[in-house]
Amino acid sequence: MRWRWTTPKTRGAAPRTRTPRARRSPRMEIAQKWMMKTVKEEEWNVWMKCPILKNSLPISRIRIYRELCLESVKNKYECEIQASRQHCESEKLLLYDTVQSELEEKIRRLEEDRHSIDITSELWNDELQSRKKRKDPFSPDKKKPVVVSGPYIVYMLQDLDILEDWTTIRKAMATLGPHRVKTEPPVKLEKHLHSARSEEGRLYYDGEWYIRGQTICIDKKDECPTSAIITTINHDEVWFKRPDGSKSKLYISQLQKGKYSIKHS
Question: pLDDT category, 148, cuts 50, 70, 90?
Fold first, then answer.
């Protein structure tokens, strides 16, 4: 393409400014629009009326490109800040939900453990009375600890074994008496009216077998029959739980003598 040098507007101008307006590059158009935003309207009109200033407009493309690059970097920086803030907020919410779910799971497990603990009423009452009588073991004026001499297996007994031993000791103390020294004549054995015995964790009574977890009906003379659930069957006693949550025990000898009678409910 040949340029015409006869046009007055292009005479004496640099070769890079001789491109027709319709064929200028998009970068030059963007630069021109940016210049229209930064330069005042009066100055722009004066600039465009002057042929020399109008043709020298592309000389400032480097400065305009630098400003555009700075603006682009600034926009990217703001976008990254906004994205990082959103990511931080989402991570905080996720962490909060995780901690909340873990705490709820721990609370649920503690509630289940609290409800599943099986403590007899007698042990509970004995523990409360012993707490009232004894002092705080962590107090500074605590007495010298008592040294216990005996077999080490004593400290390895379970609560149920201790309860059975304590029941046997109490029965023996009740039969001997506090100050009874003289030997009493042998007492005639009473005839057992009913057949009752304990075998391998099961209770046999009048031809029927009872196991742990069964619901029974307990009948006593001059009292209304009550329902209960068998919780433990020992060698000489049976523990059961009443509907109100209280626990009691029933000796097999009482079933044999007819003081109590049980049946399947």
Answer: low
